[in-house]
Amino acid sequence: MVGPGGGVPLENANPLIYRRSGERPVTAREEDDELPDSIDDREIFDILPLNAAHLIRSINDPEHPLTLEELNVVEQVRVKVNDAESTVAVEFTPTIPHCSMATLIGLSIKVKLIRSLPERFKMDVHITPGTHASEHAVNKQLADKERVAAALENSHLLEVVNQCLSARS
Fold it and tell me: Residue 73, Cα to own-chain centre: how many angstroms?
């Protein structure tokens, strides 16, 4: 099986596909603009507003026509938020231990958070421990603000990240 770019074979041609979790109901408290709205784990997983183009769970996999949630790369239980301390941690699990797309997936998650959260938040996006052969190297790249900024200055890489973040038609 050939990947989306055309001549490169897929690393994981037959990934397991998981059922998407249901949409979170929006409460009256969340809709009330007069009340402070704290950010929690589920909100990061969903990234409100509730629109398919604005969900971490709906970030597209760079190799497959599936979302990261459908591949079980992201799960709500692996999202930790401390609104009071303005921190967000997201663990993601590549589908195979030698996934060459792990850095791109992590970068896509990080960019989605940067674009969606207030600037006060510090973000930690990293691979679930023990799930990838190069997890330390990938995590180091994702934690380095200068490397992330440099990656986003690369127009080709930014285009690929934007494709991962765009709604599938």
Answer: 8
- Contact indicator for 122, 83 with CB cutoff of 8 Å: no
Residue type, 51: N
Strand boundaries in the chain, DSSP class E: 79-82, 87-92, 122-127
Distance between CA atoms of residues 106 and 132, nearest Å: 12
* 129 prior amide bond cis, ω within 30: no
DSSP 56: G
Under a CB-based contact definition with an 8 Å cutoff, are residues 38 and 49 in contact?
no
CA distances from 24 to 41, 43, 108 (A): 12, 9, 23
Tell me the pLDDT tens digit for each residue of 92-130: 999 999 999 999 999 999 999 998 888 998 999 999 999
Average pLDDT, integer, range 136-149:
96
pTM, full prediction: 0.73
The Cα–Cα gap between 116 and 15 comes to: 29
**Residue 34 binned pLDDT confidence (cut-offs 50, 70, 90):** confident
3-state secondary structure of 67: strand
For the record, the structure tokens of 116 come out as: 């969606």
